[in-house]
Amino acid sequence: MQKELAPEFTLPTLTGDTLSLRDLRGKAVLLSFWVTWCPSCQVDLPQKERFFRSLDADHFAFYTINVTGREADPSQVEPFVHEHGFHFPVLLDQGRTVYDAFQIQSVPTSVLIDPNGRIVGRYDEQVPFLHIVEVIGNLI
């Protein structure tokens, strides 16, 4: 079965840099979409922080994407990240552009992309993070 190619994007980071998905070719990539007001995201993000701290960045890339178009006040994203002590990289969606391009329906949702840029799976809050980690292990 042919997997769908992940939509290309370039987004600003919370630190003011930019990142393009094409720059990550050759690595498996996990993108995690979230918003500050979401209770499920507040449970999910600490797990993602522990995961991020254990990564081998040579073979795998992990980025969170804040869906600014679903935030009541996008200026609260940076204080939220600092308040919770998150160190994972945060990309800022341009409204809902990337969220919609990846056909995301809810937050939190994670998207796993293989080293060739093809989507392996989309995982909403119903999928245990341990399952996603197992799929990643099989991929890399």
From TrEMBL:
GO terms for molecular function: antioxidant activity; oxidoreductase activity. Keywords: Disulfide bond. InterPro entries: AhpC/TSA, Thioredoxin-like_sf, Thioredoxin_domain, Thioredoxin_ResA/DsbE_sf. It comes from the Bacteria. The keyword Disulfide bond applies. Residues 1-140 form the Thioredoxin domain. The lineage of its organism: Bacteria, Bacillati, Bacillota, Bacilli, Bacillales. PROSITE patterns: THIOREDOXIN_2. PANTHER family: THIOL:DISULFIDE INTERCHANGE PROTEIN DSBE, THIOREDOXIN-LIKE PROTEIN HI_1115. The keyword Disulfide bond applies. It holds the Pfam family AhpC-TSA. This is Peroxiredoxin.
